[in-house]
C-alpha cells in the first residue's frame, strides 16, 4: 500500500447495504477500507470482493492462533480477495511467520498489532510493544498497528520500527488527532466512527484528508 490520502476507513457497520453504500461513496477517496468482525460476522467473507470494487480491503481479523490455524485463516481471507490481513504478534514468531508465508504466496501484505489504542492496552500489551515491533521486522511483515491515542508512544514505536509502514487507529472517537498522528510517525490513520457515523461520511472523509495534507 502506497500512501496517497493516508486515510483508511474502519468499516465497522453491520448492515450490508450501509457498508456497500459507504464504500461506493468514499472508496475512491481513501487508501483502503478495513473490515473487521462486526461486518464479516454479519455479512460473511463474500462481502470482501464487493467492497474491493471500490478500494483495497484490509482484513482486520487480529489473527492470534497457532501457526496452522493462522495459515488456514489467511488462506481463506486472501482467497476472498483481501489485500492485507492484520495479525497479533503476541502469539509469537512462528504464528506471525505463518501469516507472512501465506501472504507471500498470494502477493499480499501482513500488518502486526503492537500497542493498541484503548486504555486497556496499558495493562499488558504496552510492556511488550517494542518486542512486538521486533517480531514484525524479524518475520518480514509489511507494517504494524500503533496507537494514535498516544503520540509519544507512536513516535517511540516509529523509531524502533525503521521502514515498516505504520497504520494508526484511534483518531476521532477515541480522542486522537489526525495531523498529530502523522507528525508522530504514522503513514496512515485508521478512522471508523467519525466517518461512518457522520451525517455526511463523504464530507467527513474529505475533511480528514484536508487535515492530513496540511
Ligand atoms: O475510529 P474508531 O474508534 O471508530 O475505530 C477504530 C478502528 O480501529 C476499529 O475498527 C478498531 O477495531 C481498530 N483498532 C483500534 O481501534 N485500536 C487498535 O489498537 C487497533 C485497531 C485495529 O485496527 O487493529 C488492527
From TrEMBL:
InterPro entries: Aldolase_TIM, OMPdecase, OMPdecase_arc, OMPdecase_AS, OMPdeCOase_dom, RibuloseP-bd_barrel. It is an enzyme of class 4 (lyase). Its EC number is 4.1.1.23. One of its GO terms (cellular component) is cytosol. SUPFAM superfamilies: Ribulose-phoshate binding barrel (SSF51366). One of its GO terms (biological process) is 'de novo' pyrimidine nucleobase biosynthetic process. The active site is at residues 60, 62, 65. Residues 6-208 form the Orotidine 5'-phosphate decarboxylase domain. GO terms for molecular function: orotidine-5'-phosphate decarboxylase activity. CDD domains: OMP_decarboxylase_like. Homodimer. Belongs to the OMP decarboxylase family. Type 1 subfamily. This is Orotidine 5'-phosphate decarboxylase. The gene is pyrF.
Amino acid at each position: 500500500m502506497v500512501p496517497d490520502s493516508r486515510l483508511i476507513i474502519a468499516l465497522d457497520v453491520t448492515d450490508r447495504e450501509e457498508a456497500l453504500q459507504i464504500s461506493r461513496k468514499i472508496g475512491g477517496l481513501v487508501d483502503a477500507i478495513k473490515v473487521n468482525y462486526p461486518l464479516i460476522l454479519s455479512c460473511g467473507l463474500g462481502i470482501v470482493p464487493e467492497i474491493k470494487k471500490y478500494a483495497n480491503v484490509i482484513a482486520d481479523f487480529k489473527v492470534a492462533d497457532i501457526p496452522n490455524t493462522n495459515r488456514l485463516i489467511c488462506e481463506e481471507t486472501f482467497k476472498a480477495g483481501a489485500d492485507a490481513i492484520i495479525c497479533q504478534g503476541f502469539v509469537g514468531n512462528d504464528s506471525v511467520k505463518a501469516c507472512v508465508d501465506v501472504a507471500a504466496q498470494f502477493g499480499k501484505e501482513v500488518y502486526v498489532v503492537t500497542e493498541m489504542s484503548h486504555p486497556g492496552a496499558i495493562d499488558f500489551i504496552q510492556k511488550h510493544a517494542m518486542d512486538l515491533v521486533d517480531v514484525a521486522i524479524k518475520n518480514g511483515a509489511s507494517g504494524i498497528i500503533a496507537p494514535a491515542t498516544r503520540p509519544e508512544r507512536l513516535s517511540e514505536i516509529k523509531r524502533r520500527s525503521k521502514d515498516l509502514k505504520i497504520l494508526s487507529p484511534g483518531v476521532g472517537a477515541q480522542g486522537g488527532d489526525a495531523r498529530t498522528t502523522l507528525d508522530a510517525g504514522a503513514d496512515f490513520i485508521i478512522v471508523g466512527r467519525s466517518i461512518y457515523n457522520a451525517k455526511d461520511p463523504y464530507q467527513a472523509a474529505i475533511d480528514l484528508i484536508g487535515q492530513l495534507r496540511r
